[in-house]
């Protein structure tokens, strides 16, 4: 079985990850490189593991999480679809069987809130993991005076935790926003679609999605 470790050591994957961030830096986007994809990979795997899914599904979720943003090396627009095809072909060259690489392709191709939705356990875990990574560490721009809204909202988030209570079937995104940097309302203005996507992804896994901001339950 192809593992996450195998994927991380693949030279083609490494080049695509580096190229993706290089392009996003020029475009002024937040960080989508090793930090982000490692967090998403870890969280996606943990979600399925805690819900009792087989080890094979957990490993596929980790791989999907690590590869989910490589399409940014092609173009930010439709990066989910281009990334899905890139991942499919890389995994094919690595010797992964057709069923497993198809599952990963489906998950990556559906992780963007503009075009996708949860279509499998792996895609649902990927969505929840990806959309939960909101944090000031993702802000690449070092000039606060030139922050756009995405920079400001991410920079305002000083803590972000995704917690799953498998017994109660509740997954909670618990974040803290420094309201001196931006009001909570700004978070919803740019992340409402992602929040609703997370809610539907949780529903696919037969759990409830809960959002807590500054110790107040909002969803």
Q: Layout of SSEs?
A:
Blueprint: H1 4-8, H2 11-27, H3 34-50, H4 55-67, H5 79-94, H6 98-109, H7 121-131, H8 149-156, E1 157-165, E2 170-177, H9 184-204, E3 208-213, E4 216-217
Parallel strand pairs: 2-3
Antiparallel strand pairs: 1-2, 3-4
Helix pairs in contact: 3-4, 3-7, 4-6, 4-7, 5-6, 6-7, 7-9
Overview of the molecule:
With 219 residues, this protein is of the alpha+beta class. The protein has a single domain, classed as Orthogonal Bundle (Hypothetical protein af1432), CATH 1.10.3210. It is 55% helix and 11% strand. It has nine helices and four strands; from the N terminus they run H-H-H-H-H-H-H-H-E-E-H-E-E. It has helices at 4-8, 11-27, 34-50, 55-67, 79-94, 98-109, 121-131, 149-156, 184-204; strands spanning 157-165, 170-177, 208-213, 216-217. Strands 1-2-3-4 form a four-stranded mixed sheet. Helix 3 runs antiparallel to helix 4 (55-67) and helix 6 crosses helix 7. It is globular, with a radius of gyration of 17 Å. The model has no long low-confidence stretch (mean pLDDT 97).
